[in-house]
Write a structure and sequence with these properties.
Oligomer: single chain
Bound molecules: guanosine-5'-monophosphate, zinc ion
Strand content: 15-25%
Radius of gyration: 14 Å
Shape: globular
Mean pLDDT: 96
Number of helices: 2
Number of strands: 5
Helix content: 10-25%
């Protein structure tokens, strides 16, 4: 598995930094956000280190599809009907950890536009 030794989420995926794991398979690792912004706030990562959506290769498209499919399955397992999925791309959009992750947020109302 391609990884970046300086990356926080690569360390979480490997288990070098502990996390509250929600789901794992060969390609995906999902865990609770340490600073939740909603009653449910789960981060779904590809295990492969990709910095952000904008740096994806075409061949990563199926993997990102699997990230979204994992969010759908996690929501189904938790019987969550309404949720928000967010990829922050770049620091100007709020990205702080440069390893792609999908935020799954639920359990409270969400404003639109998001602000
Ligand atoms: P971003 O701002 O990059 O889209 O999201 C990064 C998320 O990672 C933030 O919501 C932040 O709370 C979460 N986070 C940062 N460090 C850790 C950590 O060590 N463990 C966990 N579980 N979440 C983290
Ligand atoms: Zn990484």
């Amino acid at each position: 598995m391609m990884e970046n030794s300086d990356c926080l989420f690569c360390k979480i995926v490997k288990g070098d930094i502990p996390s509250s794991k929600i789901y794992e398979d060969d390609d995906i690792f999902a865990f609770n956000d340490i600073n939740p912004q909603a009653p449910t706030h789960i981060l779904i990562c590809p295990k492969k280190h990709i910095e952000k959506i904008a740096s994806m290769d075409l061949e990563d498209t199926a993997l990102i599809g699997k990230v979204i499919e994992s969010a759908k399955k996690i929501a189904e397992d938790k019987q969550i009907e309404d949720y928000r999925l967010v990829f922050n791309n770049g620091s100007g959009a709020g990205q702080e950890v440069f390893h792609i992750h999908l935020h799954l947020l639920a359990g409270r109302p969400f404003a639109w536009p998001p602000g």
